[in-house]
UniProtKB/TrEMBL annotation:
Residues 29-250 form the Ionotropic glutamate receptor C-terminal domain. Belongs to the bacterial solute-binding protein 3 family. Residues 1-26 form the signal peptide. It comes from the Bacteria. The lineage of its organism: Bacteria, Pseudomonadati, Pseudomonadota, Alphaproteobacteria, Rhodobacterales. The keyword ATP-binding does not apply. PROSITE patterns: SBP_BACTERIAL_3. Residues 29-251 form the Solute-binding protein family 3/N-terminal domain. It comes from Sulfitobacter indolifex HEL-45. The keyword RNA-binding does not apply. It is found in: Cell envelope. Keywords: Signal. This is Amino acid ABC transporter substrate-binding protein. Pfam families: SBP_bac_3.
Amino acid sequence: MNLNKNLIVGLTVAAFTALSGVSAMAQDVLKIGSYPANPPWEFKNEAGEFEGFEVDIINEVAARLGKTTEISGYDFRALFVATASGRVDAVISSLTITDERLEAQSFTQPYFSGALGVGTKTDAGIADLDGLEGKRIGSIATSFPENWLKEREAELGYASYSSYDTTANMLTDLRSGRIDAAVNDIVSLRYAFAQPTMQGLQVSVEIPTGDKFAIMMPKGSEHLEAVNDAISSMKEDGTMATLYEKWLGVAPAEGSLAVTPLPVPTSAD
């Protein structure tokens, strides 16, 4: 009887220890959502592994918190569902802080101030925003560029708008002539057009917007302050500037978001 009792107690303790170990292990991993076709911010290499500017940022943040990352790919629209449902701890995908998004999500401090680009064929004859009048344009569904375009539909006077789930599909339609212009983050467009398969395309118009890129997290995430502090330390010790130059090809400007520590934002301003 005592032998059986001791056996049961031993098995119970072993099971509890194993479960505790699994729980502790899970807490050491940050689950990250990412749009997997968004170079140079994040993309999958030939080995199927994530790399890019924001991949390096989140991996460095995790290391400073004594954690590792587990990065999963999502369609752009699904990223917001993933954070809202708590399926991921954070999302990286050149995401702009907006007041509307802050109602349902939390964001870290920004580390990049963006601009939009209008991508066209080199012979499209579009040199400014007036050139979009009567044209067929496209962008990524639920993105900042899409919202920017829709808010200015009457002003720009474009003929039609196409919404895309992937950058690849959008640029395929641009090359084939199904749309006349693609509007997206200018860094992503320039990176894409530098690839051999994208010859004949160019950024014809740059649109300064001042939108701020940051890591998105579930509303009120327990990790938010720690992640934000890690980003501040990366800015202070020069790590962020090193990653910026590695992926974007130039050093960040003095006083820019890439080198200026900031608190957790409560508004898009």
